Amino acid sequence: NPDGTKTMEVGGKKMIYQWNDDLNIVTQQTEESKRAGEILENLKLGCVSSKDSSDTDIDTNIIDIGSIPDTLTTEQVDLSDAVGSGAFKTAYNLKGQPDLLVVLLKPRYRATEIKKEIGYLKQLEALGIKTPRRYKKITFIDTSMPKPNVKQHGLVVQKIKGAWDIKLRQKGIVPLVGVLDNSNNQTLEDLKRLQKIFSKNSNLCVWDLQGLVAEDGQLYIMDPQYVDMQTNSKHNSAQLDALQGFEQNILKHHERFTDKTLNHIVYIDKEIWGSPDDTLKQKILNDAKKNNNKVLVVYDSATGEKNVIRQPRNSQSLEFETVEVISRDSVSLSADLKNE
Predict the structure, then answer these.
(1) Do 192 and 267 lie in a common domain?
(2) Fewer CB within 10 Å: N-end or C-end of the chain?
């Protein structure tokens, strides 16, 4: 062929052979696989992320995408345990890169499917919806096979740490406990943003609407089957109902923390407590005065020292249902406070 490859018919199927300089072997792929590679090659990837997307879990200064080879093997990709699998792709961990995944297309797929999905994700991002980031196109050779010459195509993408998936197709789907445990104020903010987007775009419908709730509470939308901007408003209303239902599930799961009648302990970082802006401090103190069932403890994350600021007279005999920790970040929590 003009590009240096050779096409041969094997078992009634046309296979394309090519020399791989990196591995010093001849690789083979079907015509459809080659087409998929060309599609990925022509897609604009880079560090695509939606407006308002937070990348607090990724330091883009540390991730050197250019250092990742264009051709990956089992030396770089951990095939022992798939992170997730869909209709035409499977996600694996990238060794030595805890913030990244490799998404490989399955052998039996239609090359246009990946192009369609990335197009749908870009549509969602243009509306302000948060999606996982996509970095670069790669090819993969499974060198653990006796004849390591079958080429697969894929993408290097953002790994959403500690994530649990949630189906948002219709109201009434009960989220897994892991989803609810990950959910927090950030999740509620992301849900409100999604609700506003669906309300503003009354004909918007995302087929197979599903998301990921990260360990920090961020909600990402992933794997859309189709983005319809001309749908019947009934479908839009159904998805709004699903988003509102998920919101109610989160509030129900965390209602202990909004129940003022429950005995409650608050640990707050010394630096936050001593901040010149004492808005949070005054709010916590006022809440404790109104409800005489709160214990306030200021802690020093460096030394582990704790100082009780306020407690009810009968605090020694109380059983505490809920514990709240207010810190600058999860890293600064001292080990003994985590255990306690």
Answers:
(1) no
(2) N
